[in-house]
Amino acid sequence: MFMDKQVKLAIAPIGWTNDDLPELGGEATFEQCISEMALAGFTGSEVGNKYPRDTGILKKALELRGISIASAWFSSFLTSKPFEDTKAAFIEHRDFLHEMGADVIVVSEQGNSIQGQMETPVFDQKPVFTEEEWQLLVDGLHRLGDLAAEKDMKIVYHHHMGTGIQTTDEIARLMDETDADKVSLLYDTGHLVFSGEDHLHILKTYMDRIRHVHLKDIRAEVAQKVRDEKWSFLRAVKGGVFTVPGDGVIDFKPVFEALSEAGYTGWFVVEAEQDPALANPFEYALKARRYIRETSGL
C-alpha cells in the first residue's frame, strides 16, 4: 500500500507517562518508555515530559534504540496573551526540535482551552472563539509559520477536544483563513471521532494540507458516557475513551488507503493516552504495531 520509506512509524510516550495527568505512569522512566517503543517495532517518538532537554543526552539515548524524534506538542496562547509571550517559547521549542532532526512542529491553541480542567464538561463548555480571537489566531499562526520556515520547518495545527478548533466547521474556517504555505494540518483520527466529526471527510477534504498524522482509536461506549454524564476531557482520558488502533471502533483501512493514494509522506504517530495501570503500554504498543502491519502493510 505504501512505498518503501514513504511513511515512518512512531508512537507517543503518553501511553507510558501522561503529560496532563502526571499520576498516570508516574513511575515509568524515560528509558523504559523508549526501550519498549523500540522493542514493539517503532522507529520514532514524540517528546514527553520525562525526556531530557539536553539534546546530546537525548540523541544518544534514542540512537542506541534506533528511535528518531517525529515532533513535539507546543501550546500557543495567541488568543489570550501577547504574541511575544508565545513567540519566545516557540523559538526555544523550534530550535530544540530542529536540533533533534524534526521538520514539523505540532501547535495547538490553548487560549480558553478546557482540556486541562478536571471538572469542566468537555462538550457542554467547549470554548468558541470570538471574531477578534479568530483574527488573533490566524495572524499569530502565520507568524509562527514564518518562524518555523527560518529553520525549513512547518507548523502542523492540532485540532483538539476542549479547544476552539475541534469541530468540522472550526477546522474548515482555520483551513480557509490560513495560508497553506505557512499553516499545515495535523490529522488526528481519535479527536475527530470523539468529537462526532466525519474523520474521512476531513481527511479527503484537507489531504493537501496534512503533514502529520496521529493514529488514535476510540471506545464508543466511553465516548457516549462522556456526553451523557458530562465528563471533562481529563476524566474521559482516565475513563479510557482513547485506545490504540485496532482496539476501538475506527476502521483504519480506508484511512490508510486514502493517505496512500494521495502519496502522503511523513510520520504516523500512534497516540493513545490511557491509564498504564489498566492498559499496559508495551502490550498496547505491540497490539497497535500488529494491527498497522495487517491493515497497511507497514
TrEMBL record:
Residues 38-294 form the Xylose isomerase-like TIM barrel domain. One of its GO terms (molecular function) is manganese ion binding. GO terms for biological process: inositol catabolic process. Its EC number is 4.2.1.44. Keywords: Cobalt, Lyase, Manganese. It holds the Pfam family AP_endonuc_2. Pathway: Polyol metabolism; myo-inositol degradation into acetyl-CoA; acetyl-CoA from myo-inositol: step 2/7. It catalyses: scyllo-inosose = 3D-3,5/4-trihydroxycyclohexane-1,2-dione + H2O. Its cofactor is glutathione; Co(2+); Mn(2+). The keyword Manganese applies. InterPro entries: IolE (IPR023952), IolE/MocC (IPR030823), IolE/XylAMocC-like (IPR050312), Xyl_isomerase-like_sf (IPR036237), Xyl_isomerase-like_TIM-brl (IPR013022). Belongs to the IolE/MocC family. This is Inosose dehydratase. The gene is iolE.
